[in-house]
Amino acid sequence: MNDNDWLTGAFEQHRDHLRGVAYRLLGSMSDADDAVQDTWLRLTSADTSEVQNLGGWLTTVVARVSLNILRTRQRRREDPVGDVWPAPADQRGAEPGTSPEGAPEDEAVLADSVGLALIVVLDTLTPSERLAFVLHDLFAMPFTEVAAVLGRSTEATRQLASRARRRVRGAPSPDRAADLSRQREVVSAFLAASRGGDLSTLVGLLDTDVTLTADEFTVPGGKAMRLQGVPQVSKGALLASARSRQSQVALVDGNVGIVFAPAGRLQVVLTMTVSAARTITAIEVIADPERLRRLRLAVLPE
């Protein structure tokens, strides 16, 4: 076995851990894959002959890469999509630093272990708070090592984690977590029915008095639109079925919605109001570039 084979094998042993760290830090599966890919590239170009704990070294690298992504994301709210949108599954190879094909359970396990509610709260933290909390509280990394990643003192890092911990403990409530789960279930079913042209399922998901509003950037004529009632709204959803095939379920400002971003360029966002009876009572279609830039988005694995 040559050195490259050994390095590849060693990296693969830590891949799942690195991906888990990156996902909890970033809340985006595609961003997490990018961070792992970057970590692999840094490993192949680094001199690790004196590294005694390769797992710890890799965790530190993926954390630093993730911190840079978080900081860039915070500075560039005007470009909320960028390359965070996942590539189609059939484009993901098994080369080092990319997601292995044939492991669909990975994303579901990560999403369930983190939880939508926690993703919502983590997204309200500063990059430094998020990193301090995730690395220490979720992965038991000593504060001295977390401080080295952040470039801060150990005491300052403890304070960051403490602030983050208070916010995480304060929200969301169990009711909020259940509400997010209900939203995700209904919105995912809506998107699947739209993709498949399944009118009967769409009708069953819509409240009798459902409304759909769309801004002037959505409609070719340049006029805002409002539809009301199941027949009109379900027909509109079927007409958009081609677009729905390139859409993703996502968190939109803390609630579950749908985003349309062909080739990674955000064009349309759907926000949805889901009732306790698991029906959609309102849909808003947003295509106004100014409004899109202000949205906080995190794509969810399906």
Describe, in plain words, how this protein is organized in 3D:
The chain has helices at 3-26, 29-45, 54-75, 105-114, 116-122, 127-138, 143-150, 154-170, 174-196, 199-205, 230-239, 241-244, 289-294, and strands at 206-214, 225-228, 247-252, 255-260, 268-274, 280-286, 297-299. The protein has 13 helices and seven strands. Strands 2-1-6-5-4-3-7 form a seven-stranded mixed sheet. Mean pLDDT is 81; it is low at 77-113. Strand 3 and strand 4 (255-260) form a beta hairpin. The chain folds into two domains: 3-170, PhyR, sigma-like (SL) domain (Butyryl-CoA Dehydrogenase, subunit A, domain 3, Up-down Bundle); 174-299, Roll (Nuclear Transport Factor 2, Chain: A). It is α+β, with helices and mostly antiparallel strands and 302 residues long.
